[in-house]
Amino acid sequence: MIKTRFTEMFGVDHPIVQGGMQWVGRAELVAAVANAGALGMITALTQPTPDDLRKEIARCRELTDKPFGVNLTILPAIKPPPYAEYRQAIIESGIKIVETAGNKPQEHVDEFKKHGVKVLHKCTSVRHALSAERMGADAISIDGFECAGHPGEDDTPGLILIPAAADKVKIPMIASGGFGDARGLVAALALGAEGINMGTRFMCTKESPIHQLVKERIVANDERETELIFRTMRNTSRVAKNVISTKVVQMEKEGAKFEDVRELVAGARGKMVYATGDADEGIWSAGQVQGLIHDIPSCAELISRIVGEAEAIIRERLERMTAGAKRQAAE
Fold first, then answer.
1. What whole-number distance in Å separates Cα of residue 73 and Cα of residue 44?
2. What are the boundaries of each domain within the chain?
3. What's the CA angle centered on 288, arms 214 and 31, to 5 degrees?
4. pTM value?
5. Which end is more exposed in the chain, N or C (fewer Cβ atoms within 10 Å of the end residue's Cβ)?
6. Using CA atoms, how far apart are residues 187 and 182, in angstroms rounded to an integer?
7. Entry's InterPro entries (predicted)?
C-alpha cells in the first residue's frame, strides 16, 4: 500500500486518479475504478443535462459504495453549457470530490467549498497551479505536454513541470500526462507528486464504455500516434492521429481558421468513434502514453498491477541500488 497526502485527503487506498474524459467518464468505468481503491471521476458535460448528471451519479452509487468524484471542465464555447446548474446538481447529489479544469473556476471553487466539497484543480503550468492554490483548491493535478486533450501552450513536459510545480505548490499535487504503469507512478512520487492521474490508460480497460476496436487501436498505436490540433489558434489539443486530425493539421498549416475545420472537429463525430469503433470517423483524445499500453485489463487488474509493481520497484530495484552503494562505501 502506498500512502500519500493525496490518499489521506481524498480517502482512497491508492494514489491513482481516473480524470474526467468527455464521452468516457461514465458510471460503469468510475465505479470500477472506485471499487479497485482508486479515485474515479464522472465527466459532468458528457451528460446532456444537469438532470442526466444527477441520474448518472445515482447509477454510479448503485455500483459502488467507495468515494468517487465529478469532473467539471470550464472551456470557451460558442454556447456555454449551464455550468451553475451542473454545479448545483453535483452539490445536491452529495458529491464531496470535484475535479475542475479550464478557465477561471473561482466562482465554482467558492461554491463547492461552501458545501464542503474538496476541489482537485487540473492545470498545465506552475503559475496556474499557484493561482488555483490561492483560489482555495485542495489539491492540484499538474498536466504535462505528453497528455491527451489540452496541454496548454507552454509545451513543458512532465519531467520538468512536475518538480518545478512541486518546488512551489504547498497543497497535494498529482501528476498527469503520460502515465500508464508502475514506473510512471514511482517516477511521479520521486519528482514530488503525491500520485498520478491517468486518462488514456483507463480508456483501454474492460469497463471503459467505448468500442472494443478503439481499445485495440490504442494497444496497436505507439507513442508517435498523436497530433496537436488548434496550435495556430492557441488552443492546442492532443488527439489520436487519424485521417481527420492529420487533415486538420494540414489545413492549419495552410491558414485555416476554426470555421474552416468546425465540421471536421465536431464533438458529435468524436462521440461516434467511441460508438462505432471507426477510429477515422472524427477527432478523439489520446496521449503519447499509447506507446506504453499493451493490453486491455479490468480496472481492478490494472490498479493492482500498477501498485504492486510500484512497491516492488521501490523495495527491490531502488533499495538494492542504495544498499549496494552503502556496501561499497563500507568496504
1. 8
2. 5-208, 226-285
3. 55
4. 0.96
5. C
6. 9
7. Aldolase_TIM (IPR013785), NMO (IPR004136)
